[in-house]
Amino acid sequence: MEGFSFSTDVRIRFAETDAQGIAHHASFVVWLEVARVAHLAERAGGYQLVRERGLEALTTEVRLRYHRAAYFDETLTVWARCVDVRGARFTYEYRIERGTELVADGYTRHATVDRETHRPTRVPSWLADAIATGDSSAR
Question: Degrees (nearest 5) of the Cα angle 48, 28, 89?
Fold first, then answer.
């Protein structure tokens, strides 16, 4: 996928579908999180390490656009990249595909806060450098 260097696959579980076997719209938000957490695991040592270093990364906004339906037992590829790290904020973009067909796309925005006080804190350089690695438009 052009511009993306990270992806993970998700298999649609029955519990994620409606009575017609179509993936429920809310399941897509979960799949974005699956990809983001996997990206953090690969690039920054995992979300637990972020927490151990005294930070939380709160989701402040989610935007999704649905292009095609997805169905029970299909495997989808979720592409993820960090496209902006600024101050205490960062943004991930996503593309969800079935083969080469675009199923959904969108973004999530996040704020880093001190784990104890929940006050905004600048994204530390070690985290900014890690999540931006290999993503052409980050930073």
Answer: 50
Tens-binned pLDDT, residue by residue, of the chain (139 aa): 688 999 999 999 999 999 999 999 999 999 999 999 999 999 989 999 999 999 999 999 999 999 999 999 999 999 999 999 999 999 999 999 999 999 999 999 999 999 999 999 999 999 999 888 555 444 4
- Structure tokens belonging to residue 45: 């040592």
Considering only CA atoms, which of 77, 79, 83 is closest in space to residue 136? 83
Please give, one letter per residue, the 3-state secondary structure of 18-85: CCCCEECHHHHHHHHHHHHHHHHHHHHCCHHHHHHCCEEEEEEEEEEEECCCCECCCEEEEEEEEEEE
CA–CA dist 105, 121 (Å, integer): 28
pTM score, two decimals? Answer: 0.91
The contacts of residue 132 (CB under 8 Å, 6+ apart) are 82, 85, 138, 139
Instruction: Enumerate residues 6+ apart whose C-beta is below 8 A from 115.
Output: 51, 54, 55, 56
